[in-house]
Protein backbone atom coordinates (compact mmCIF):
# COMPACT_ATOMS: atom_id res chain seq x y z
CA UNK A 1 0.00 0.00 0.00
CA UNK A 2 1.61 3.34 -1.05
CA UNK A 3 2.30 5.88 1.69
CA UNK A 4 -0.03 8.86 1.26
CA UNK A 5 0.50 12.35 2.66
CA UNK A 6 -1.95 15.19 2.11
CA UNK A 7 -0.25 18.58 2.43
CA UNK A 8 -2.78 21.28 3.18
CA UNK A 9 -4.79 23.52 5.47
CA UNK A 10 -7.53 21.56 7.28
CA UNK A 11 -10.07 24.39 6.75
CA UNK A 12 -9.55 24.47 2.94
CA UNK A 13 -12.55 23.22 0.96
CA UNK A 14 -10.29 21.53 -1.62
CA UNK A 15 -8.27 19.78 1.10
CA UNK A 16 -11.56 18.62 2.58
CA UNK A 17 -12.66 17.27 -0.82
CA UNK A 18 -9.61 15.01 -0.96
CA UNK A 19 -9.92 13.96 2.69
CA UNK A 20 -13.63 13.14 2.34
CA UNK A 21 -12.75 10.73 -0.46
CA UNK A 22 -9.92 9.16 1.55
CA UNK A 23 -12.17 8.75 4.60
CA UNK A 24 -15.06 7.30 2.59
CA UNK A 25 -12.60 4.89 0.91
CA UNK A 26 -11.19 3.89 4.31
CA UNK A 27 -7.62 4.63 3.22
CA UNK A 28 -4.83 5.48 5.67
CA UNK A 29 -3.06 8.79 5.10
CA UNK A 30 -1.13 11.45 6.94
CA UNK A 31 -2.22 15.08 6.98
CA UNK A 32 0.74 17.45 6.95
CA UNK A 33 -0.62 20.87 7.88
CA UNK A 34 0.36 23.76 5.61
CA UNK A 35 -1.29 26.80 7.21
CA UNK A 36 -2.29 29.12 4.38
CA UNK A 37 -3.52 31.68 6.93
CA UNK A 38 0.11 32.01 8.07
CA UNK A 39 1.37 32.13 4.47
CA UNK A 40 2.99 28.67 4.71
CA UNK A 41 1.67 27.83 1.23
CA UNK A 42 4.01 30.51 -0.13
CA UNK A 43 7.14 29.16 1.59
CA UNK A 44 9.96 28.02 -0.74
CA UNK A 45 9.55 24.51 0.71
CA UNK A 46 5.86 24.33 -0.22
CA UNK A 47 6.30 26.09 -3.59
CA UNK A 48 8.77 23.34 -4.49
CA UNK A 49 5.87 20.89 -4.06
CA UNK A 50 3.22 23.05 -5.74
CA UNK A 51 4.44 26.02 -7.82
CA UNK A 52 1.02 27.72 -7.57
CA UNK A 53 1.04 27.76 -3.77
CA UNK A 54 -2.40 26.14 -3.62
CA UNK A 55 -3.51 23.41 -1.25
CA UNK A 56 -3.84 20.43 -1.38
CA UNK A 57 -0.82 18.58 -2.70
CA UNK A 58 -0.79 14.79 -2.41
CA UNK A 59 2.45 12.89 -1.92
CA UNK A 60 2.37 9.25 -3.02
CA UNK A 61 5.52 7.40 -1.94
CA UNK A 62 7.46 10.63 -2.45
CA UNK A 63 5.85 11.47 -5.80
CA UNK A 64 3.92 14.76 -5.86
CA UNK A 65 0.48 15.34 -7.34
CA UNK A 66 -1.46 18.62 -7.21
CA UNK A 67 -4.83 19.86 -8.55
CA UNK A 68 -7.79 18.38 -6.72
CA UNK A 69 -9.45 16.89 -9.82
CA UNK A 70 -6.25 14.98 -10.65
CA UNK A 71 -5.79 13.89 -7.03
CA UNK A 72 -9.35 12.66 -6.53
CA UNK A 73 -9.46 10.79 -9.83
CA UNK A 74 -6.13 9.13 -9.03
CA UNK A 75 -7.31 8.08 -5.55
CA UNK A 76 -10.66 6.91 -6.93
CA UNK A 77 -8.88 4.69 -9.45
CA UNK A 78 -6.15 3.27 -7.24
CA UNK A 79 -7.88 2.94 -3.86
CA UNK A 80 -11.61 2.81 -4.55
CA UNK A 81 -11.99 0.77 -7.76
CA UNK A 82 -13.79 3.76 -9.38
CA UNK A 83 -16.54 3.57 -6.75
CA UNK A 84 -16.79 7.38 -6.51
CA UNK A 85 -17.57 8.01 -10.19
CA UNK A 86 -20.59 6.76 -12.15
CA UNK A 87 -19.81 4.06 -14.72
CA UNK A 88 -22.31 5.32 -17.31
CA UNK A 89 -20.31 7.66 -19.63
CA UNK A 90 -22.78 10.57 -19.70
CA UNK A 91 -23.16 10.53 -15.90
CA UNK A 92 -19.38 10.40 -15.59
CA UNK A 93 -19.19 13.46 -17.85
CA UNK A 94 -21.86 15.15 -15.68
CA UNK A 95 -19.66 14.56 -12.64
CA UNK A 96 -16.69 16.24 -14.33
CA UNK A 97 -18.97 19.02 -15.55
CA UNK A 98 -20.14 19.71 -11.97
CA UNK A 99 -16.52 19.68 -10.71
CA UNK A 100 -15.52 22.18 -13.42
CA UNK A 101 -18.53 24.42 -12.71
CA UNK A 102 -17.57 24.47 -9.04
CA UNK A 103 -13.93 25.34 -9.87
CA UNK A 104 -14.73 28.06 -12.38
CA UNK A 105 -18.09 29.53 -11.39
CA UNK A 106 -19.12 28.53 -7.85
CA UNK A 107 -15.97 28.52 -5.69
CA UNK A 108 -15.00 32.11 -6.69
CA UNK A 109 -18.22 33.88 -5.58
CA UNK A 110 -19.13 31.42 -2.79
CA UNK A 111 -15.78 30.94 -1.05
CA UNK A 112 -13.35 33.54 -2.40
CA UNK A 113 -15.88 36.32 -1.89
CA UNK A 114 -18.80 35.52 0.43
CA UNK A 115 -17.15 33.11 2.89
CA UNK A 116 -13.82 34.97 2.99
CA UNK A 117 -15.60 38.31 3.54
CA UNK A 118 -17.97 36.93 6.18
CA UNK A 119 -15.56 34.73 8.17
CA UNK A 120 -11.91 35.51 7.39
CA UNK A 121 -11.86 39.29 6.97
CA UNK A 122 -13.30 39.88 10.51
CA UNK A 123 -10.63 37.59 12.06
CA UNK A 124 -8.03 39.89 10.48
CA UNK A 125 -9.57 43.00 11.99
CA UNK A 126 -11.49 44.07 8.88
CA UNK A 127 -15.16 44.51 8.04
CA UNK A 128 -16.97 42.43 5.39
CA UNK A 129 -17.34 44.33 2.12
CA UNK A 130 -21.16 44.20 1.79
CA UNK A 131 -21.11 45.47 -1.80
CA UNK A 132 -18.70 42.72 -2.84
CA UNK A 133 -20.86 40.12 -1.07
CA UNK A 134 -24.05 41.42 -2.69
CA UNK A 135 -22.45 41.23 -6.14
CA UNK A 136 -21.38 37.63 -5.54
CA UNK A 137 -24.90 36.32 -4.86
CA UNK A 138 -26.13 36.30 -8.50
CA UNK A 139 -23.08 34.44 -9.91
CA UNK A 140 -23.34 31.89 -7.08
CA UNK A 141 -27.05 31.40 -7.87
CA UNK A 142 -26.30 30.92 -11.57
CA UNK A 143 -23.68 28.26 -10.81
CA UNK A 144 -25.94 26.45 -8.36
CA UNK A 145 -28.90 26.47 -10.73
CA UNK A 146 -26.67 24.83 -13.36
CA UNK A 147 -25.58 22.18 -10.87
CA UNK A 148 -29.22 21.62 -9.85
CA UNK A 149 -30.10 20.89 -13.50
CA UNK A 150 -27.22 18.41 -13.83
CA UNK A 151 -27.80 16.68 -10.49
CA UNK A 152 -30.07 13.85 -11.57
CA UNK A 153 -29.26 11.51 -8.67
CA UNK A 154 -30.80 10.66 -5.35
CA UNK A 155 -29.79 10.97 -2.57
CA UNK A 156 -26.38 12.00 -3.98
CA UNK A 157 -25.80 14.34 -6.90
CA UNK A 158 -25.46 11.57 -9.47
CA UNK A 159 -27.14 8.55 -7.93
CA UNK A 160 -27.35 6.29 -4.92
CA UNK A 161 -23.56 6.29 -4.53
CA UNK A 162 -21.62 9.31 -3.29
CA UNK A 163 -19.26 10.66 -5.99
CA UNK A 164 -16.38 13.10 -6.38
CA UNK A 165 -18.94 15.76 -7.35
CA UNK A 166 -20.48 15.46 -3.86
CA UNK A 167 -17.01 15.66 -2.29
CA UNK A 168 -16.52 18.97 -4.17
CA UNK A 169 -19.82 20.56 -3.19
CA UNK A 170 -20.13 19.42 0.46
CA UNK A 171 -17.21 21.46 1.88
CA UNK A 172 -18.50 24.63 0.18
CA UNK A 173 -22.04 24.11 1.53
CA UNK A 174 -20.65 23.64 5.04
CA UNK A 175 -19.36 27.22 5.02
CA UNK A 176 -22.00 28.81 2.82
CA UNK A 177 -24.87 27.39 4.89
CA UNK A 178 -23.59 29.46 7.82
CA UNK A 179 -23.88 32.75 5.92
CA UNK A 180 -26.99 34.96 5.65
CA UNK A 181 -26.66 34.64 1.84
CA UNK A 182 -27.32 30.87 1.82
CA UNK A 183 -31.10 31.29 1.81
CA UNK A 184 -31.07 33.49 -1.30
CA UNK A 185 -28.43 31.44 -3.11
CA UNK A 186 -30.37 28.17 -2.68
CA UNK A 187 -33.88 29.64 -3.01
CA UNK A 188 -34.25 28.32 -6.56
CA UNK A 189 -32.44 25.01 -6.05
CA UNK A 190 -34.84 22.87 -3.94
CA UNK A 191 -33.19 19.59 -5.02
CA UNK A 192 -29.85 20.78 -3.69
CA UNK A 193 -31.46 21.78 -0.40
CA UNK A 194 -32.85 18.24 -0.04
CA UNK A 195 -29.45 16.86 -1.09
CA UNK A 196 -27.79 18.98 1.60
CA UNK A 197 -30.19 17.78 4.33
CA UNK A 198 -29.31 14.19 3.45
CA UNK A 199 -25.53 14.30 2.82
CA UNK A 200 -25.01 16.39 5.90
CA UNK A 201 -25.30 13.16 7.88
CA UNK A 202 -22.19 11.43 6.41
CA UNK A 203 -19.81 10.29 9.19
CA UNK A 204 -16.77 11.38 7.17
CA UNK A 205 -18.02 14.99 7.21
CA UNK A 206 -17.94 15.05 11.02
CA UNK A 207 -14.37 13.77 10.93
CA UNK A 208 -12.99 16.00 8.17
CA UNK A 209 -15.04 19.18 8.41
CA UNK A 210 -15.50 19.63 12.17
N1 LIG B 1 -7.02 24.42 -8.68
C1 LIG B 1 -6.68 24.10 -7.32
C2 LIG B 1 -7.38 25.08 -6.39
C3 LIG B 1 -7.03 24.86 -4.93
C4 LIG B 1 -7.32 26.10 -4.11
O1 LIG B 1 -7.77 27.14 -4.62
N2 LIG B 1 -7.03 26.01 -2.81
C5 LIG B 1 -7.15 27.18 -1.96
C6 LIG B 1 -7.70 26.77 -0.59
S1 LIG B 1 -9.37 26.14 -0.66
C7 LIG B 1 -5.78 27.77 -1.74
O2 LIG B 1 -4.79 27.08 -1.81
N3 LIG B 1 -5.71 29.07 -1.44
C8 LIG B 1 -4.49 29.72 -1.08
C9 LIG B 1 -4.12 30.84 -2.00
O3 LIG B 1 -4.80 31.05 -3.02
O4 LIG B 1 -3.14 31.51 -1.68
C10 LIG B 1 -7.09 22.65 -7.03
O5 LIG B 1 -7.98 22.14 -7.71
O6 LIG B 1 -6.50 22.02 -6.15
Automatic annotation (TrEMBL):
SUPFAM superfamilies membership: GST C-terminal domain-like, Thioredoxin-like
Superkingdom of this protein's organism: Bacteria
One record GO biological process: glutathione metabolic process
Pfam families named in the record: GST_C_2, GST_N_2
UniProt-recorded Gene Ontology molecular function terms: glutathione transferase activity
Residues covered by the GST N-terminal domain: 2-83
Subunit-level organization: Homodimer.
Protein name as catalogued: Glutathione S-transferase family protein
Amino acid sequence: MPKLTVHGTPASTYVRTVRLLLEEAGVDYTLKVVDMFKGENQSPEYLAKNPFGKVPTLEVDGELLYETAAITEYLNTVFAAHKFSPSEPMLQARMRQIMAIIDSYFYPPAIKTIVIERFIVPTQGGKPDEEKIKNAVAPAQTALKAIETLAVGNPYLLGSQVSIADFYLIPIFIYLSQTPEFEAITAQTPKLRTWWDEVNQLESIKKVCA
